[in-house]
Specification:
Elements (H helix, E strand, L loop, with lengths): L8 E5 L13 E2 L13 E2 L31 H16 L3 E7 L3 E2 L4 E10 L11 E7 L5 E8 L4 E7 L7 E9 L4 E8 L8 E6 L9 E9 L10 E8 L2 E2 L3 E4 L5 E7 L9 E9 L2 E9 L7 E6 L10 E8 L9 E6 L4 E6 L5 E6 L7 E7 L6 E3 L8 E5 L10 E7 L3 E9 L2 E10 L5 E5 L4 H4 L3 E8 L5 E9 L6 E6 L12 E6 L9 E5 L3 H7 L6 H7 L21 H10 L4 E3 L2 H4 L14 E2 L4 E3 L9 E5 L5 E5 L5 E5 L28
Parallel strand pairs: 3-16, 5-11
Antiparallel strand pairs: 1-36, 2-19, 4-6, 4-38, 6-9, 7-8, 7-10, 10-11, 12-13, 13-17, 14-15, 14-16, 14-18, 18-19, 20-21, 21-24, 22-23, 22-25, 25-26, 27-28, 28-31, 29-30, 29-32, 32-33, 34-35, 37-39, 40-41, 41-42
């Protein structure tokens, strides 16, 4: 019998594309672990267990009112439209990305490398970059190997043979352009033995507390890709050095199962581990994950849409919850005013991210109380509502179903404003409108350039007053489905060992039309890909997402996964929280001399500088703080040098602080769920 062709992982690249299936931790059965035993209660296949992956239908765009009339002759608008293109012609941002053939290697194996150094504006290679130096960096920071290679049209390729006998651990593939700009990609070197079974174990939520039911999804497949259907596996749960009752579950036709168990009402330390044992052909393998248990302490931050909440105006507030070590934590809770009245509820949607709506009353203060997981007694204060100001609200269109990027502007007092949309250093559109007091003005930002209108990536929408002082800003991810489609077809279904394999590669645009593309293809054992559990961002994430948001994005590829039901809404929540930032617009109005290129980290350099704000934003850059006379002080986070001061900008989002004491009790309004 001829063996079936092992699964292939195709990594194809054009203006934007990369798809990599990443699975969870695999390891061999420990000597003190027992294989699945009889006598453990067994659960039949769960209808909610993971099944066949299918692309989800696009989410419909939120309806929006008709567009408000534009003010065509407002001088500041014309001034801004003229200055933006000139600034970015002299301040070109770059996107860097390194691809390897796999994430896990043994000593003596070859690492195949390809890198891209592209202009952010059009994703084309720069003619000024002629070469790149690749380095293999050890876990201790020593350069083990290095090579220099030529760059053509922004791309380069080379390889490293990992020396025999090197120590194991996380190595870095570092690419340094001739002008000093660098980017790194981690790989793991280990003398591992690949598993017989591909296993993926993930918890449904990112935090559980005492008494909660814990649910985890499990997928098991054979190395050739066939699902292990109707297979009984055993779940072993250890909590604070004690073992909870074991659970047997049975996989469905697609090899999926749900593992469910209940945590005890009293938990001492919260040190939990879930291990699933899978027996196949007389050999038992295991996959383990730490149970995300949250006890008493929580980091909780608020991010009002646009930058502030205004008294008397309905606004959306995004939030992010993390455990004490900065990992996502899923929560539920309620919003309470200073009289103890519950005015709304909230639930995190993905990785501790969520949003709710709030209409703050003048003079009132509000805080959040966590109801799940239980045991968190701290209250988290929302920022005070501004008495005057404007808020900026986008109309949801998570899957690019409307050609225009639609926003509403509402101000406490009448004024003329300018709304600008930018996509990777390109001016999407700019509009000036009259805003009446407490009445929304509706702006449709749309590009006359068909390619820019369909371009995928983050749109930065900024609201200016008539003097071009920034008032509010938010990020919107555009055209998430405008990706290259790559199809890989072998010339036959099965092969014998050492038989030549021919592959047909087909690249199509989002509409299914043929499109030329540059393709980087690797053929590896899929069980090794599964074993590595590589959650590094792929090319879409590295070019479009991660360079434009501060801090580390947990499992960034999920946001681009069209088979994941939550991915579209989750992307918006990421834009509203981790993507919340401010930009320096002063250099656009009064451009400084072109800056010399310097070192960069994270795969991005140049352009309009990103500034992370809010607790948990992370990353290197500059932060906002209150300055003299209400100005905003922008300081370097490493040198603490003040590099610019700007007045009258909207305040940064507020990391939640303990709430003030309650005022006297008043009759409670009707609670509202969001």
């Amino acid at each position: 019998m001829k063996p079936t062709l092992p699964a292939l992982t195709a990594l194809a690249t054009a203006a934007a594309l990369a798809t990599l299936a990443c699975n969870s931790d695999d390891k061999a059965l420990k000597p003190d672990q027992k294989p699945p035993t009889s006598g453990v209660p067994s659960t039949p296949p769960d209808p909610s267990a993971p099944g066949k992956k299918e692309v989800q239908a696009p989410l419909a765009a939120e309806p929006a009112p008709a567009e408000s009339p534009r003010l065509a002759d407002l001088p500041p608008l014309k001034d801004l439209q003229a200055k933006i293109p000139g600034f970015f012609q002299n301040n070109v941002g770059r996107r860097l990305y390194v691809q390897v053939d796999k994430a896990l290697y043994k000593p003596g194996e070859t690492v195949w490398i390809k890198s891209w150094d592209l202009q952010a504006r059009d994703l084309k290679g720069s003619a000024n970059i002629q070469g790149v130096r690749y380095e293999l960096v050890s876990p201790k920071g020593a350069v083990v190997l290095k090579k220099r290679t030529q760059v053509q049209n922004g791309t380069a390729t080379n390889d490293f043979e990992i020396p025999e006998g090197v120590q194991g651990g996380e190595y870095q593939i570092r690419a340094i352009a001739d002008d000093g700009v660098k980017v790194e990609r981690p790989i793991i070197v280990s003398t591992y033995e690949p598993p017989r079974v591909k296993k993926k174990l993930e918890f449904v939520r990112k935090a559980y507390g005492a008494g909660d039911e814990v649910t985890a999804t499990l997928e098991v497949k054979r190395p050739t890709g066939e699902p292990m259907a109707n297979k009984t596996v055993t779940a072993v749960i250890r909590l604070d050095d004690a073992e909870l009752p074991r659970v047997n579950v049975t996989t469905n036709a697609e090899g999926g199962a749900l593992v469910k168990f209940t945590l005890p009402a009293n938990i001492e330390r919260g040190d939990g581990l879930l291990t699933v044992l899978v027996e196949d052909g007389g050999v038992t393998e295991s996959v383990s994950k730490s149970v995300p248990i949250l006890l008493k302490k929580l980091q909780f931050s608020f991010y009002p849409e646009g930058g502030q909440i205004v008294a008397g105006q309905a606004g959306r507030v995004y939030f992010e919850a993390k455990n004490p070590i900065g990992k996502p934590a899923d929560v539920e809770g309620k919003i309470v005013d200073d009289h103890g009245n519950a005015v709304g509820t909230f639930t995190s949607y993905h990785d501790g991210l969520g949003r709710f709506e709030l209409t703050p009353n003048t003079g009132r203060t509000y805080h959040a109380e966590i109801t799940k997981p239980v045991g968190i007694t701290e209250h988290f204060a929302l920022p005070m509502a501004a008495e005057d100001g404007c808020n900026l609200r986008s109309f949801d269109d998570f899957d690019g179903q409307d050609a225009a990027l639609r926003v509403a502007v509402r101000c406490a007092t009448p004024r003329k404003v300018v709304v600008v949309g930018m996509v990777r250093e390109n001016l999407l559109d700019a509009a000036a409108v009259d805003v009446k007091a407490n009445e929304p003005a509706i702006v449709y930002l749309k590009s006359a350039d068909a390619a820019l209108a369909k371009a995928q990536g983050i749109a930065r929408v900024t609201l200016f007053d008539e003097k071009l002082v920034p008032l509010a800003e938010r990020l919107v991810y555009r055209n998430r489905r405008q990706s290259l489609q790559v199809k890989v077809k072998p010339d036959q279904e099965t092969y014998t060992p050492r038989e030549q394999v021919a592959l047909k590669i087909e690249t199509l645009d989002a509409d299914g039309k043929p499109m030329p593309a540059e393709v980087a293809l690797s053929v590896v054992d899929d069980t090794v890909v599964s074993f590595a559990d590589d959650k590094q961002g792929h090319m879409l994430s590295k070019l479009f997402l991660e360079p434009e948001v501060p801090g580390k994005v947990e499992e960034p590829n999920v946001y681009f996964d069209l088979t994941e039901k939550k991915s579209a809404t989750a992307m918006d929540l990421l834009m509203g929280t981790r993507g919340w930032r401010k930009f320096e617009w002063a250099p656009v109005m009064n451009p400084p001399p072109p800056m010399a290129t310097g070192m960069a980290e994270g795969g991005a350099i140049g352009g309009l500088g990103m500034r992370g704000v809010g607790r948990g934003g992370g990353g290197k850059g500059r932060g906002f703080g209150a300055g003299p006379g209400g100005a905003v002080r922008i300081a370097d986070d490493e040198a603490d040098d003040v590099v610019m001061e700007m007045a009258e900008m909207a305040p940064p989002p507020v990391a939640a602080m303990p709430a003030p004491p309650k005022a006297a009790k008043r009759p409670a309004p009707e609670p509202q769920a969001f």
